[in-house]
Amino acid sequence: MLRPRVIPCLLLDGKSLVKTTQFAHPDYIGDPVNTIRIFNELEVDELMLLDISASKEERSPQIDLLKTLVDECFMPISYGGGIQDLDTARELFSIGIEKVVINSHTFDDPSIINSISDSFGSQSVIGSIDVKNKSFGGRKVYSQSGSKEHNVDPVEWAKELERRGVGELLITSIDREGTWEGFDHELINDLSSEVSVPIIAHGGASDVSDIRKVIHQSGASAAAVGSMVVYQKQDKGVLVNFPDIDDLRFKDPS
């Protein structure tokens, strides 16, 4: 079978890489250029960069920094953060970004998805949905790095983004992000059963077996991982690494 997609998801805060827990408490990881050089050596297939402060600060992407990172990187890069219109997406594509990840601005103007998809193809745009479980059941959707709540069901919002032309969906569990507690498999399963576009599961990856499970049993097409690839292990120091992908040409984990 084709080897599964496991995507390092790196968080930019200013010009530094950080790692958050449940979208809070950003810890400094290091310089993004040096980190990308390590992933080059590890022969990673693709990379995702998310600027976690761009939308909250109402600023555009850091084009100069991103151009430096793209020039350094041997692999395709997806980027999200501060993308508010087609012109910004066009500029990102012009410097070598392969896919744009759209989250916060879809709530202000969902037609941005249509515009990018119509101009550059659905494969160029990833719709991002950040989800948090309610205390007494149900789920909430958030934007602006988890700071703004929206009265929308994540399944219905996923369907809407699919209708508008996203090629993939990045589904992040805020509750699990950075916790090493495993993916929210119920969330991924509920969404994957309702949409036809590929789903990238994100938030809580604990080990290779959890990645195996979210793809084999929960319906994800890919796994985005953060803590697993920037720390030695839970509660240990920074160590940029990558799991053995050959070990993921999977046996079914059941």
Tell me what the structure shows.
The structure is a single chain. This protein is an alpha/beta fold and 254 residues long. It has a single domain (5-246), classed as Aldolase class I (TIM Barrel, Alpha-Beta Barrel). It is 30% helix and 26% strand. It is built from nine helices and twelve strands. The protein has helices at residues 32-41, 63-72, 86-94, 105-108, 111-120, 154-164, 185-192, 208-216, 227-230; strands at residues 5-13, 16-21, 24-30, 47-51, 77-80, 99-102, 125-133, 139-143, 148-150, 168-173, 199-202, 222-225. It has an eight-stranded parallel barrel, surrounded by five helices. The longest helix is centred in the middle third of the chain and has 11 residues, at 154-164. It is globular and about 40 Å long. The two termini are 18 Å apart.
What tags apply to this protein structure?
eight-stranded parallel beta barrel; 254 residues; 12 strands; alpha/beta; 26% strand; globular; TIM Barrel
TL;DR?
With 254 residues, the protein is of the alpha/beta class.
Mean pLDDT: 94
Global shape:
globular
SSE order, one letter for each helix or strand: EEEHEHEHEHHEEEHEHEHEH
Assign the CATH topology.
Answer: TIM Barrel
Low-confidence stretches are none
Q: Tell me the number of strands.
A: 12
Give the strand order of the largest sheet, numbering strands 1, 2, ... along the chain: 1-4-5-6-7-10-11-12
The CATH first-level class comes to Alpha Beta
Strand content: 25-35%
| Count of helix runs | 9
User: What's the CATH superfamily, by name?
Assistant: Aldolase class I
CATH architecture: Alpha-Beta Barrel
Rg, alpha carbons: 17 Å
Helix content: 25-40%
Terminus-to-terminus distance: 18 Å
The largest pleated sheet is described as:
8 strands, parallel, barrel
Structural class: alpha/beta
Domain module count: 1
